Fold this sequence. Notes:
- It contains 3 helices and 8 strands; from the N terminus they run E-E-H-H-E-E-H-E-E-E-E.
- Strands 1-8-3-4 form a 4-stranded antiparallel β-sheet. The protein has a two-stranded antiparallel sheet with strand order 2-5.
- By secondary structure, it is α+β, with helices and mostly antiparallel strands.
Amino acid sequence: PVLLCAMCFCTNNGGGNDPEAVQDEAATIEEEPVPFSLLEEKPLFNGQSEGAFAKWVDERLVYPESAKSAGIQGKVMVSFTVNAKGKVTDVKVFKGADESLDAEAVRVVSQSPDWTPGKIDGKNVSVTYTFPVIFTLK
Length: 138
């Protein structure tokens, strides 16, 4: 089976800028996630583009045997927050495909290494993403 993970970071409020972010622990704000469109610097996964996270997820997905044997495929929409410290938190299924696929998507995204957090006015802020994980059998 070939696992495909399509990367499409989406939020309710659109895009943002793409400058490099530098984490400053002294300038951390712990508040509710901010709209993506208000960011001056968006979160970065391993200092790379958004596609790097999609690749990271794809390399770690294990197609559940129960879904494989039943021929189940689908797209799992997962939401998560990159908090002001760069930790991935609050991982949950926004729109599921199948119980086993949903659980695998949450398992992998929950294991994400730290990100460089987003910033507004030079201060780290929390940002929520919606991320599609696509399971396809070949």
